[in-house]
Amino acid sequence: MVKKNVSRLLFVTFMASVLQTALSVEDVPNTNMTKSLKVLVSSNDYLDSGIKVLEEHFTVVKSRYQNFSEEGITKNKDELLDLIPGCSALVWVSHHPITKELLDRAGPQLKVVSTASAGYNHCNVPELKKRGIKLANTPGVLSAAVAEVAIALMLGAARRFTENLDQVHSGEWEIGFDKVLGQDIQGSTVGIIGLGGIGQATVKRLRGFDVEKFLYTGHREKPEAKELGAEFVNLDTLLAHSDFVVLAVPLTDETKHMINKTTLAKMKKNAILINVGRGDLVNQDDLYDALKNRDIYSAGLDVTTPEPLPKDHKLLTLPNIFILPHIGSATIGTRNAMAVLAAKNVVNALNGKPLITPVLE
Predict the structure, then answer these.
(1) Chain centroid to CA 159: how far?
(2) Span 296-310, pLDDT tens digits
(3) CA–CA separation, 300 vs 118, rounded Å?
(4) Which among 238, 290, 247, 242 is positioned nearest to 268, based on CA atoms?
(5) Of the chain's two ends, which shows fewer C-beta atoms within 10 Å, N or C?
């Protein structure tokens, strides 16, 4: 009887040990197993902070070229087509679209695409969904940096930075009590189209400017709006009452060209349009006409279509527009946070864990 009890005790102890080992293996990724998996990084300027996270778990293959501008659609296109076969994950660092050709070349072992951006309109979502490929992005970590640029654009457009900088460069200053007068943020009504992370961060920072009223619009009311003191209204009401209209929404079929001849006509004559979302949120031909005819006061853009904007583009002939070269998230801290988050999404996906910031899962 004693022997039987001892045997049972040893068996239970052994099984508990096996179970504990199994749980430990499941909880902690086995890097020896995942090292055989290849991860393709699409651009040679992806930061080392992200590479380090990936290399702890996988074999990393990185393009020799940048995945931006002309190089991204010439040299790098062929480079990626050569490198992607056999890869389980793709870290997409680019504003260029992910093509069906690239996904075809990748084959069925491609399990996840992780884009180092908040926007994902360039990631060919329908094709990824059809193939069952997961998609992650990097929202949240860039909200503060983009909000800062939104405010910079508000100041630049309201205080006529383009005209004033031209004076500095030419050496011909308009000096006088009534020369090159701008508009105030203090006492204004600011309308936010899209009160997500970036929109909320913008409102928080603007409260120090003594804004009179915040309006916002979107699909539904946001619980955070009450604490921010922002009032939910429809789009027409926002356009009619706002001195500043800030675009902070993703680009979708619904939002493409949401700012056009019709919506611009609903804005106040002194209205200032700010875009930190995506270039195609705005019909730029209609914006040009509205600015040239002084139907609205001015505009500040961090995003355009195309990017880069050609130096002879007609928008650049206008004095009442202030344009930046898509620098919304371009700080050292923010870009490193984006690189690490993109990498951690890959780690989770290839170890059977939920994505941290999923778009498709």
Answers:
(1) 27
(2) 999 999 999 999 999
(3) 20
(4) 242
(5) N
Catalytic annotation, residues: 326
- Residue 109 CA, chain-centre distance (Å), reads 27
DSSP one-letter code for 87: E
CA gap 117, 146 in Å, rounded: 12
In angstroms, rounded to a whole number, what is the distance separating the alpha carbons of residues 252 and 126? 12
Q: What is the separation of C-alpha 329 from the centre of its chain, rounded to a whole number of angstroms?
A: 8
Q: Which of 196, 230, 203 is nearest to 215 (CA)?
A: 230
| pLDDT per residue as tens digits for the range 240-255 | 999 999 999 999 999 9
pLDDT tens for residues 195-215?
A: 999 999 999 999 999 999 999
| Dist. CA 269–CA 243, nearest whole Å | 9
Residue 26 makes CB contacts below 8 A (sequence gap 6+) with: none
Q: How confident is the model at residue 31 (pLDDT cuts 50, 70, 90)?
A: low
How many Å apart are CA 115 and CA 355, to the nearest integer?
A: 12
The answer to whether the Cα torsion of 39, 50, 358, 28 is positive or negative is positive
Residue 319 in tokens: 């004095």
Segment 44-64 mean pLDDT: 97
* Pairing label, strands 112-115, 87-92: parallel
pTM for the model: 0.88
